[in-house]
Amino acid sequence: MKFKKLNYATKYLIFSISILLVINIAASILLIDRSSAFLMGIIEERAFDIANIVSSMIDGGKLEKINSEGIGSKEYQTTSTMIKNLQDKIKLKHIYCIKNNDSKKFTFLIDSNSGQAIFGTPVVYTDALYRASLGETTFDYNPNENGNGKLYSSYSPIFDASGKVTGIIAIGFSAEWYEKQIRDLIIKSILIVVVSLIICAIIVRTFSVINRERFKYLFNQLNILADNVEKVLCSIDKMSKNVSGKNKIERSFYFQNKNPNDNDIDILKKTIVSMQEKLNKKVEIMHKMAYTDDMTSLKNKTAYLQAIKDIDLKKIGTISYTVAVFDICSLKAVNDNFGHEYGDMLIINAANILKKIFDINSVYRFGGDEFIGIFYGLSEYGIIDLFYKFDNEISAFNQDQKEDSLKLHISKGFSVFNKDTDTCFKDVFERADTAMYDDKAKYYETTGLDRRR
């Protein structure tokens, strides 16, 4: 049989009740233990006091004269009457006198309860009774059966004038009464535990219902937010030219296809994580769109201006960089004579060669026919070597072109940052731009082409 997994509210309810149950049971056990010990302490203390009082009132010398033939004697009657009167005053049911014989044997001597314990009847031996025969007031923590029933007993020795123990006064408390008190305490503790659990269950359930309503409201708001976010994400996909069947607006967040075994907290957590992951991916796409040129996949003018800002914000002299400027010659003539499709092909081919020779993350398309490179840590010898490779790549490319309109001619120039003279990026750029225009002038002078075209 397959059981349905409990939801969060039910789990929380069961967990709370279990914790409370354990605490209540532990507290009840501790309370019963402490209460029973306290009650036994009171019984012991009272029994000690009564036993000592009674034993001090009995003449040990007269008690020693009482034997089986002296039950009706004056000594017996006097002692028995005194014990009976004292019993009536303190309202204690069990007071009796024990005679200690040799070899740890004890017998009943006087019983205040109209002779329930017959004179001479053996008394069950206990260590507490034996210690009392040696002159010590004691208490027997284990109840014993005798002619008066099951009792907890306290024993106090009776001395004669010479200090000899001639008898023992026993004060008995009903074990049944004590056990009844403990049973009543256990029942009350169980009732307290049950009532506490019921109250706890009601409170927890009430809060669970309230929280569940809050979660429902939160999920509704999350649905609305998801709809809006999904529309924004779809718009981003369209802008990035990635629109296809799989990018249609659809509820792709976690809560639409949630695991039925997840609780409310898990659903909320996974939904937020799912939304966050999708948003992060789309933010990356938007960032790339904002800083990438669509035609060439190089960084665009916005990225270039941000790079300039970052350089100028840094302290002058802490960074070393080289600026290179590239310009496609005769692009306007190609557009005018062969169409913009050919012009676009020149731009794309120029960008591909730049990406092949230089770091793609360091080259920017600034305008229609102009590219700018910012190379950190590149020396003058390093840029000259790259320019040499770049020229060779251009020559190899042009040799493969059958149409003159697709051949590339790119003017270029560079400048290295000088920490002693340059105060900002503009100083370095202007030198590189001037060098590029000088190279461009040489190209038009050599070819005889109209520079304006």
Notes on the structure:
By secondary structure, this protein is of the alpha+beta class. The chain has three domains: 9-180, Beta-Lactamase (2-Layer Sandwich), CATH 3.30.450.20; 212-290, no CATH class; 301-447, Reverse transcriptase/Diguanylate cyclase domain (Alpha-Beta Plaits, 2-Layer Sandwich). Helices cover 56% and strands 15% of the residues. The protein is built from eleven helices and ten strands. The chain has helices spanning 8-57, 60-65, 74-90, 127-133, 175-239, 264-291, 301-313, 331-338, 340-357, 380-399, 425-447; strands at residues 94-100, 106-111, 122-123, 138-146, 149-159, 165-174, 321-328, 363-365, 370-376, 410-416. A six-stranded antiparallel β-sheet has the order 3-2-1-6-5-4. Strands 8-9-7-10 form a four-stranded antiparallel β-sheet, with helices on both faces. Strand 5 and strand 6 (165-174) form a beta hairpin. Helix 1 (8-57) packs antiparallel against helix 5 (175-239), helix 5 runs parallel beside helix 6 (264-291) and helix 8 (331-338) runs antiparallel to helix 9 (340-357). The longest helix has 65 residues, at 175-239. Residues 242-251 have low confidence and may be disordered.
Summarize this, please?
The chain has 453 residues and is α+β, with helices and mostly antiparallel strands.
Number of domains: 3
Outline, from the CA principal axes?
rod-shaped
Q: What is the topology, as strand order, of the major beta sheet?
A: 3-2-1-6-5-4
Oligomeric state as shown: single chain
Mean pLDDT over all positions: 80
Distance between the termini: 85 Å
Portion in beta strands: 15-25%
At CATH level 3, the topology of the largest domain is Beta-Lactamase
The name of the CATH architecture of the largest domain is 2-Layer Sandwich
Strand tally, please?
Answer: 10
The CATH superfamily of the largest domain turns out to be PAS domain
| Contiguous helical run count | 11
